[in-house]
Design a protein that fits this description.
About 0% of the residues lie in helices and about 55% in strands. By secondary structure, the protein is an all-beta fold. The longest helix has 4 residues.
């Protein structure tokens, strides 16, 4: 079915209508698949993160509340941009908060309970043969703090973050040997691109920027937002910029060279939406070309357009590029959105207890 983009009554009255540039692209969105989350002993898990590359999508799950249960699903993405579940692993006593993968392995940032392991925060590797998970020979490594919060594969390394009083940890992707660890407060997400390793942190919000080759700390830049404890805030590194899901302050776009704010997308007005203030929060962002998809918790998924593509250099002289909110994606039923991933015209939405929504974009 078609997924309309509603541009009225979605909490952005000041930037809709006449403020929308005539140059904004025309496109259509079509819902091609909905996948319910897995269950363990009748307990429904919630989708937490998505990793996409080539013809695969890997999705992680955890359990809402104090109980520790989790899962990993591997989907095959067809040429028609549909997805088919091919493999699944379920975990008793472990939340899976984030996943990344390469051709041969899936890596997961986890949190464990009830003394299941000697350490509560875990980084786990599983084998991957095509689209099939291989559990034999899986390995685990400890992380600092109480929960692994994110993981990303790049080159011969895997990078993982762990939460309050946690760290950025760097592992060899083949041996799982830890190469480096950098203590960081409230490390929430890591991304690697353009020779930079960037970690977003909360309470207070800041990014830490490392040189990928040497892992030398280059800069620490504060930003407004990410003030909600134990909350998700993703970061995407693209075109010399960090696009940050800043929680209670919408989306922040920061220069990796200067820390200057190059763009800002505020939260939608919760009063217009008829929602409590604390359930409208920016958890994740995903940008490609000139489009930006934003997960705003119970407010759902929004799409914005930049008049200069995100992967291009944004000259910091005025006037800065403009980001315009085009509207809210209208799904027939949607739970609180935890994560979004957009690549090559395919949008996958991790909607918590609502599982996955798979959307194809056409120009």
């Amino acid at each position: 079915m078609d997924v309309p983009v509603d541009d009225t009554g979605v909490g952005y009255a000041s930037v809709m209508g006449a403020a929308r540039s005539a140059a904004a692209p025309s496109f259509s969105l079509r819902l091609t698949a909905e996948v319910l989350p897995p269950s363990i002993d009748g307990k429904v898990l919630q989708a937490t993160s998505i990793a996409m590359s080539n013809n695969k999508a890997v999705v992680s799950y955890n359990m809402r509340g104090a109980e520790y249960l989790g899962g990993i699903d591997v989907f095959l993405v067809s040429t028609e941009k549909n997805v088919t579940l091919k493999s699944e692993a379920l975990f008793n006593n472990a939340d899976v908060n984030s996943v990344t993968y390469n051709d041969t392995h899936v890596y997961a940032a986890q949190a464990c309970g009830d003394g299941a392991f000697p350490y509560p925060a875990v980084f786990e590797v599983l084998g991957l043969q095509g689209v099939s998970l291989i559990l034999d020979g899986n390995g685990r490594a400890p992380l600092t703090s109480y929960a692994g919060t994110s993981a990303v594969f790049q080159g011969s390394r895997v990078y993982a973050t762990s939460g309050d009083n946690g760290a950025l940890s760097v592992f060899d992707s083949a041996s799982l040997a830890m190469q480096d660890s950098f203590g960081l407060h409230d490390a929430r997400w890591v991304d690697v691109n353009d020779g930079k390793v960037v970690v977003v942190q909360g309470t207070p919000g800041q990014i830490s920027v490392y040189d990928e080759a040497t892992m030398a700390l280059e800069n620490v830049f504060p930003f407004d937002g990410a003030n909600i404890a134990e909350s998700k805030s993703t970061v995407q590194v693209i075109g010399g910029k960090a696009i940050i899901a800043a929680g209670d302050n919408g989306v922040q776009v920061l220069s990796l060279a200067t820390g200057n704010v190059l763009g800002h997308v505020p939260l939608p007005d919760n009063n217009v939406l008829g929602l409590p203030r604390d359930v409208v929060v920016t958890n994740a962002v995903s940008a490609e070309g000139d489009l930006l998809f934003i997960s705003n918790g119970e407010a759902g998924v929004y799409v914005a357009w930049a008049d200069t593509p995100f992967d291009q250099d944004w000259d910091e002289t005025l006037p800065l590029p403009t980001i315009t909110v085009l509207g809210q994606l209208q799904f027939s039923a949607l739970q609180s959105v935890n994560h979004v991933a957009y690549k090559d015209g395919l949008l996958i939405v991790a909607s918590g207890l609502g599982g996955l929504k798979v959307v194809r974009l056409s120009n």
